[in-house]
Amino acid sequence: MNSQTGTPDHADTRVGGGSEIDHLLEETRRFPPSPEFAANAVAGAELYERAQRDREGFWADQARELLHWHKPFTQVLDWSMPPFAKWYADGELNVAYNCLDRHVEAGHGDRVALLWEGEPGDDRRITYAELTDEVKRLANVLTDLGIGPGDRVAIYLPMIPETVAAMLAVARLGAIHSVIFGGFSADSLRSRIDDAGAKLVITADGGWRKGKVSPLKPAVDQALGERNGLGVQETVEHVLVVRRGGNEVDWVEGRDIWYHDVVPQASAEHEAQPFEAENPLFILYTSGTTGKPKGILHTSGGYLTQAQFTHRNVFDLRPESDVYWCTADVGWITGHSYVVYGPLANGATQVLYEGTPEFPEPGRWWDVIEKYGVTIFYTAPTAIRGFMKQGRQIPQARDLSSLRVLGSVGEPINPEAWMWFREVVGAGACPIVDTWWQTETGAIMISALPGVTETKPGSAQVPVPGVSIDVVGEDGQHVGSGNGGLLVITEPWPSMLRGIWGDPERFRETYWEKFESQGYYFAGDGARLDEDGDIWLLGRVDDVMNVSGHRLSTAEIESALVAHEATAEAAVVGAADETTGQAVVAFVILKESYLRQHGPEGLAQQLRTWVGEQIGPIARPRDVYIVGELPKTRSGKIMRRLLRDVAEGREVGDTTTLADTAVMSVISAQVR
Ligand code: 6R9
């Protein structure tokens, strides 16, 4: 424990013997799959048996069955130089061919790949044949711009079909994309472009967000302009610009090129060349809570195998009939694996939506589900809690009867939100898969399988077939059922990160050093195993609090707070406290409907008592602050570090990664 900041450091991340957390997350509701669903499910229990018997053989089968290999592999896993893994190393494939051409060649060219919905209400349907054509033209353009195998291309685009085409065109050439979320500033863009040494930037004039055009190209201009005069070698040679926002943009002659001036005119003849399975596919920067962002590196064959396998089995996908929708932006790993690579490798039909959930009004997402007859819906707990706050009448005014599978990702989902998702969105009938994974893992690692697993609200449950996970103590030993500890991955997996771009030492230190003697990957998450051996994620270990020597999880207390009828959303931090080491401090957003009827009086005290009743006196917050908003990163994760600053009466730290940087001054004022 760092007594200065009250932040647990990595040398002190034991999650107790589990006695106090035994009481927590007591959740006894169980939802077995319906017999009809189970009888027709894509996945079956035999997948676990097969993987159990021979893990590598299982992944070899998946890679052979799911993908087209230009040159078949003979070797499955090479783990001779840990932590640097090679999967299917002597095989060759083309990732874009697997996502496009092969579906057209199999006679599915007329199947819709993208049901694109722009925020202003414009829409486009793009078939597999059309998307293949677009990608071939773009690949020819990129080749003319000097892009070849191994070159890095930065992509800074809104959620439009050209974004998907850009990623696939880069992949088709064996080059490496680095997608930078459109909400990032010129500074972030610049540091990422520099770190990757990108040769080309693909951007748009702007995209639609909350009823306005949010400009993109000006940030690229600024990022590249700043370099002039710094004496740093410019790596970017060209900027390819899609017209989407219609906003006016500056133009650098010789550097900038309009997409529409070159792509439609280019030849649609382009033969996909094979590349080695370990050819790099993309770099994706993770924001990280401190320090320089890490460029997480993923490669081709293993990544695509696990993305496709999990997308098919975790979502019970039937490509011929399902309409799938993942609400993540392609700027995040969820968008890479479950908007682009998994769904397209499976030949799925999916919705791609440009805007925000509340524009022009709060029911927009439900309108999209109704309009396209979405059957599989994959979103984040933060969005679900936002919808809970608005009230169930909004989704209930729409026809959501097409839905049959629901998924959650990004943070622990509290049982209350899980139940609301099930009842209000899924009409009490759709299986919910709570999927745990990370940018680093590339694809889903822990999840129920619909039709196979009896689900439990709030638990991510079991590793997917072929994945080996454990919960261990600081000593690396299995904690056993009923106990809490640290989540580790005990065996290499196909879609694992292959490193941090340009920094092999940081890769080793960050993920492998902690359990070096066991050879485990340290995920940075706390977890608990219940009596059935199911896994409950407890949040990042840096969010684990120590109050009077008791280990408490922010996620557990938040879950209790959100279970109160008045609470819409809650964030909990451990703040330094003279007597107890750390004290629990809660920040709570109230439900508008509750406020209209009761007002906020006395609620802070009521909520303290409530948590004490729900979990035990040790978990009772020292302070409960009623606030209007919580500080979130652009991917929707609550930045507890900033709340800790407020709770400890310090000046608020770096807010540059917040989606809305003004939010902290509002919170500080409310707390004062
Ligand atoms: C896919 C993604 C990774 C971190 C991870 C964990 C949290 C993600 C979760 C979850 C509990 C889930 N996380 N899914 N926690 N239950 N189902 O979100 O990747 O942005 O890299 O974040 O998110 O803490 O370590 P990424």
UniProtKB/TrEMBL annotation:
Pfam families: ACAS_N, AMP-binding, AMP-binding_C. It is an enzyme of class 6 (ligase). ATP binds at residues 410-412, 434-439, 525, 540, 551. Residues 556-637 form the AMP-binding enzyme C-terminal domain. Acetylated. Deacetylation by the SIR2-homolog deacetylase activates the enzyme. Residues 106-501 form the AMP-dependent synthetase/ligase domain. GO terms for biological process: acetyl-CoA biosynthetic process from acetate. CoA binds at residues 209-212, 334, 548. The keyword Ligase applies. InterPro entries: Ac_CoA_lig, ACAS_N, AMP-bd_C, AMP-bd_C_sf, AMP-binding_CS, AMP-dep_synth/lig_dom, ANL_N_sf. One of its GO terms (cellular component) is cytosol. Keywords: Acetylation, ATP-binding, Ligase, Magnesium, Metal-binding, Nucleotide-binding. One of its GO terms (molecular function) is ATP binding. It comes from the Bacteria. Its cofactor is Mg(2+). Its EC number is 6.2.1.1. It catalyses: acetate + ATP + CoA = acetyl-CoA + AMP + diphosphate. Mg(2+) binds at residues 562, 564. Coiled coil: none annotated. The modification N6-acetyllysine is found at residue 637. The keyword tRNA processing does not apply. Residues 46-99 form the Acetyl-coenzyme A synthetase N-terminal domain. Catalyzes the conversion of acetate into acetyl-CoA (AcCoA), an essential intermediate at the junction of anabolic and catabolic pathways. AcsA undergoes a two-step reaction. In the first half reaction, AcsA combines acetate with ATP to form acetyl-adenylate (AcAMP) intermediate. In the second half reaction, it can then transfer the acetyl group from AcAMP to the sulfhydryl group of CoA, forming the product AcCoA. Belongs to the ATP-dependent AMP-binding enzyme family. This is Acetyl-coenzyme A synthetase. It comes from Microbacterium album. The gene is acsA.
